[in-house]
Amino acid sequence: MIARSWILDCQLNHRCSEAIPTLTTQYLDGVRPARMIDVAAFQHPSQDIRLVEMDQVCTYVALSYCWGHGLSYVTKQDTLLSLLTRISYNDLPQTFQHAITATRNLGYRYLWLDALCIVQDSVQDWERESQKMGVIYSQAVVTIAATESRGVHDGFFNYESCSEISPSWKKMVVRDAVRYREPTELLLYEDAYDPMDAATDMAAGTLAQRAWACQERILSARVLHYKKKQIYWECRQAAHIEEGIPSFSNNSGWAGTGPSLGRELAAYDISDRDLSNRIFKWYNEILHTHYSTRQLTYASDRLPAISGLAKLVRGSMNITYLAGLWKERLQFGLCWGVVNIVPRSTVNASPSWSWTSYETPVCWPMTVYESFPPALYYLDDFDIELASSDRFGRVNGGFLKITGLMCVVQVEFLLGLAHRFNHSSLEGKMGDWSSKLSDFDGIHLGAALLDRDPGTDVVHALILAKAETRDGEHGEWNMLLVTCAGGTSDRFERIGIAQVRSDGIEEKPLWLPKFERRSITLI
User: Per the database record, which ranges form the Heterokaryon incompatibility domain (predicted)?
Assistant: First the structure.
């Protein structure tokens, strides 16, 4: 079986299992799944399985899949005892059956999948086990990904496997016009099997739209993707496709977004530059590119579904997590913008200054700059009210006490209109920057990217940072737009961000004296 050969090759020749030492340490220190599925609990010909409670480290396979609609076979408090005794294979949905069969064919005894290994109607069990997601997927010997299955009843085995037909590529030896005249292999293959199309192939899978699957893929040491026509393999050091094209770099195309990204995130040291790189990747690659566009069944899972990745990014660094943001380089983190204006979440209790307070894709326009601009405010105090013992999980609110330069501004809400004013620096930046920003005298300042229509609320701008454009000839002032919360004078809620350009790097804008130093609390 080709998948078994990929696993063996990885185990013998790679160091994928050692790539995330902080998560590995948690696993060895006792942070392991409470339960596993024993797929070899009963003798052949019975295919039945059972749940087992784990008290020691074991080798296991994990499943990444979409629940879909109509999943009724889950572990509950009143069924746990019977499932620990025996589970009828024939009663399980097809995706679970395929996962059990695949685990057996790969030569492993234990399988982890959330619907059965977590007691779904127990808040305490879910909170405890969901905190372990990063460890569970990073320590699985391999993760089986039901990449195209829409739900548990679809299954994921393919019946058009390319390995069952004649190879579509042939090898030629080219000796002319090659450096040092060394023999070079030239592979000819049909367009249908172009490995560089794999990125599009992966993105088109149903699993790529599921929020939880983002960290499941990145944190895994090895992933077997089951597609309609063939299986794909990626680990932290290599990538393969079943039809036989030789291994290609895990930094090219689709493979650079999976386990190899997890390895890259784990590889940083504690230098200031690497801290900036790590935080940049958190906002731009993980949240914007891979996570915020995905779907959640429960909006309250917006933070738990990336808690494992947050723990990975933090690593051994002494940095502080603030409801999806990092206290370090906070001037960058606060400059998020919604790609589409939607009502603020009524289910999610995140503070207004966190991107998790909206159920919509988000972006960080400041990623166009060469480096992090310094903060032009002081963070005096902060607090996050956690909803559980997991400081990377759900929150019930939080505040930031900030001292900085503020001014009352006017925002002309022009949703969806073309830019009617000169602000060429917005080119290449995501979000609807149509809204116009002026000072209280009506003098035009710049553009605003709003979370919502401020209506008749008085809007204040708080200066966060001044960045240098790539050409080095202009400065761009990044501001947070806020309104008073509940009629108070010192508690504010975020409503968007703004950007104001100045012609010279050192030039002091004429509008700057209108901003006064003030201390506020953002909630």
Answer: 60-216
Quick one: angle between helices 307-314 and 212-219, nearest 10?
A: 40
CB 402 within 8 A of CB 379: yes
Q: CA-CA distance, 67 to 521, in Å (whole number)?
A: 41
Residue 171: how many other CB atoms lie within 10 Å? 10
Q: What is the mean pLDDT of residues 141-151?
A: 95
Cβ 348 vs Cβ 359: under 8 Å: yes
pLDDT in tens, 163-174: 443 444 455 555
Phi/psi for 8 (5° steps) reads -65, -45
Element (H, E) at 313: helix 307-314
- CA distance linking residue 491 with residue 475, whole number of Å: 30
How many CB atoms lie under 10 A from the CB of residue 363? 22
Pairing status of strand 35-38 against strand 170-174: unpaired
pLDDT digits (tens, 9 = 90+) for 278-304: 888 899 889 998 999 999 988 999 999
Would the pLDDT of 29 be above 70? no
Asked if residues 91 and 79 have their Cβ atoms less than 8 Å apart, the reply is no
3-class DSSP state of 12 = helix
Is 135 a residue whose pLDDT tops 50? yes
Most confident among 172-176, 181-185, 485-489 (mean pLDDT): 485-489
The whole-model pTM stands at 0.86
Q: Please give the Cα distance from 42 to 83 (Å, whole number).
A: 14
Mean pLDDT value across the chain: 85
Question: What is the distance between the terminal CA atoms of the chain, rounded to a whole angstrom?
Answer: 55
Cα(364)–Cα(465) distance, integer angstroms: 14
The SS3 assignment for 133 reads: helix
The CA distances from residue 1 to 147, 217, 385, in Å, are 20, 22, 50
SS3 assignment, position 328: coil
Rounded-to-integer distance, Cα 340 and Cα 147, Å: 27
CA atoms in the 13 A half-sphere facing the CB of 32: 18
Q: Give percent of the chain with pLDDT exceeding 90.
A: 56
How far is 315 from 305, CA to CA, in rounded Å? Answer: 18
